[in-house]
């Protein structure tokens, strides 16, 4: 009945929680490619399982208290870096363990005894005056491995040297020398056989499709390769996730901007349906579409802005006058007065600075029903001031965020929240600072702060 009503699955009473969770996770995997997060932490051949309060090696398991698990989690997360005693105490205070330095020392000593019981005495190191850290990955295992190989190598070298010495001193004792070499070769054959067996086991594990368990790796070199590959894989995954996030953000912005362009297109379509066609209004809508497309193209070029900069000595007044002329239809349509005062000469990029002024002026036109817009120099900044409706105080801190249009944009359905965001991003890449002040009913003033300390006003 449940399936007939449209359910994907069902559970018969009495319901068991583990079964319910397993079914939910299965549905999430099928629908959203959901992956269950692995909370286990690894360091060399050691694996910490916080959910079970256990520390595992290839052959042994140590049961931990919740406090000991928190302490080891901090050390494992630091990945060999020093964790201060203060950081450990603060972490424990996030729960119900309100401990001091003495209690921390007691817990660390108890933890050391537990790991020592399975032969991991060097897992936790004390850094005098700083705190604690985990020993370098595989330190205990590597040292034991290297010591054993060094001891066997020394024995073989001794036997071989003795054989050569005996063959030189006892020219007729060939049988004695042969026996010495045999005893030297026998351990070597055993070592080679064991290493080959380990190599074959790990080689078969690499050929398998299942994930490699680090606790099963016994060779230090293989373990080092595993850790290196794991680190590179994590970096690759982080880079991929960042690229995916950027791609999704770009798609969302393109969708938003496409919706924004549809407004003048719809207006233009209505104008063309009425005879005679109002050419003046039609050109105005076309100019809006052109500006929307320009903003979108500049958004797509934002990631390569650093390679697209051409810094020159730039008189600002001709640049601002050109920007005003480009927006002349909008100014004339709303009967707004524009005043451009004396402006300085700066070092900047004309193309991108033109874009910033265009966005600030377009924004001023959009929210100024009547009155005037002024562009003038003040201190280290060039101001763009209007007599428009103003911006709410609660909107000011977020006015430069991507996609944020504030109350005015939502009320008038005019803003996409992209123009000011782009202006802010471009200004920062040019070494400029963009700020805004505003009062409701009095207008808004945007300021472009230049880094120059000496201005030559035209």
From TrEMBL:
Molecular-function annotations in GO: DNA binding; phosphoprotein phosphatase activity; phosphorelay sensor kinase activity
Segments forming domain Response regulatory: 1-28
Residues within the DNA-binding region(s): 38-136
Chief location: membrane
CDD domains with a match to the protein in the record: trans_reg_C
Enzyme Commission designation: 2.7.13.3
Bilayer-crossing regions: 150-170, 176-197
Membrane topology (UniProt): Multi-pass membrane protein
Recorded superkingdom: Bacteria
InterPro entries referenced in this protein's UniProt entry, alphabetically: BphY/WalK/GraS-like, CheY-like_superfamily, HATPase_C_sf, HATPase_dom, His_kinase_dom, OmpR/PhoB-type_DNA-bd, Sig_transdc_His_kin-like_C, Sig_transdc_resp-reg_C-effctor
Catalytic EC class: transferase
Catalytic activity from the UniProt record: ATP + protein L-histidine = ADP + protein N-phospho-L-histidine
Compartment(s) of residence: Cell membrane
Biological-process GO terms, alphabetical: cellular response to phosphate starvation; regulation of DNA-templated transcription
SMART domains (alphabetical): HATPase_c, Trans_reg_C
Domain Histidine kinase per the UniProt entry, residue ranges: 256-454
GO CC, any one term: plasma membrane
Protein name as it appears in the record: histidine kinase
Organism name: Lacticaseibacillus paracasei subsp. paracasei Lpp126
């Amino acid at each position: 009945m449940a399936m007939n009503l449209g359910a994907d699955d069902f559970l018969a009473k009495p319901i068991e929680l583990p079964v319910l969770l397993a079914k939910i996770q299965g549905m999430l995997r099928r629908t959203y490619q959901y992956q269950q997060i692995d909370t286990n932490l690894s360091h060399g051949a050691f694996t910490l399982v916080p959910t079970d309060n256990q520390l595992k090696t290839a052959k042994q398991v140590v049961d931990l208290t919740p406090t000991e698990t928190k302490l080891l989690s901090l050390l494992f997360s630091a990945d060999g870096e020093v964790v201060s005693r203060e950081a450990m105490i603060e972490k424990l205070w996030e729960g119900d363990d309100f401990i001091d330095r003495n209690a921390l020392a007691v817990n660390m000593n108890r933890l050391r005894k537990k790991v020592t019981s399975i032969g991991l005495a060097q897992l936790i190191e004390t850094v005098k005056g700083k705190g604690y850290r985990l020993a370098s990955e595989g330190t205990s295992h590597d040292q034991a491995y290297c010591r054993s190989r060094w001891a066997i190598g020394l024995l073989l070298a001794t036997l071989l040297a003795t054989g050569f010495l005996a063959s030189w001193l006892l020219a007729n004792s060939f049988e004695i020398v042969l026996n010495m070499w045999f005893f030297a070769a026998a351990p070597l054959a055993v070592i080679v056989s064991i290493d080959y067996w380990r190599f074959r086991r790990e080689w078969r594990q690499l050929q398998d499709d299942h994930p490699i368990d680090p606790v099963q790796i016994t060779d230090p070199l293989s373990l080092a390769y595993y850790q290196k590959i794991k680190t590179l894989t994590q970096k690759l995954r982080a880079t991929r996730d960042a690229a995916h996030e950027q791609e999704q953000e770009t798609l969302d912005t393109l969708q938003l901007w496409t919706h924004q362009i549809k407004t003048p297109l719809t207006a233009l379509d209505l104008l063309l349906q009425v005879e005679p066609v109002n050419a003046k209004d039609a050109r105005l809508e076309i100019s809006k579409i052109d500006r929307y497309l320009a903003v979108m193209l500049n958004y797509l070029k934002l990631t390569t802005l650093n390679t697209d900069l051409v810094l020159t000595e730039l008189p600002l007044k001709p640049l601002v006058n050109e920007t005003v002329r480009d927006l002349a239809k909008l100014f004339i349509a709303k009967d707004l007065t524009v005043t451009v005062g004396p402006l300085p000469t700066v070092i900047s990029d004309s193309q991108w600075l033109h874009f910033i002024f265009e966005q600030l002026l377009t924004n001023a036109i959009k929210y100024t029903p009547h009155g005037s817009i002024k562009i003038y120099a003040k201190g280290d900044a060039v101001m763009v001031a209007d007599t428009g409706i103003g911006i709410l105080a609660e909107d000011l801190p977020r006015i430069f965020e991507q996609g944020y249009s504030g109350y005015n944009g939502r009320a008038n359905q005019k803003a996409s929240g992209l123009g000011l965001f782009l202006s802010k991003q471009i200004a920062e890449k040019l070494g400029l600072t963009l700020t805004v002040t505003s009062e409701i009913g009095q207008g808004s003033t945007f300021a472009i702060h230049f880094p120059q300390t000496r201005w030559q006003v035209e």
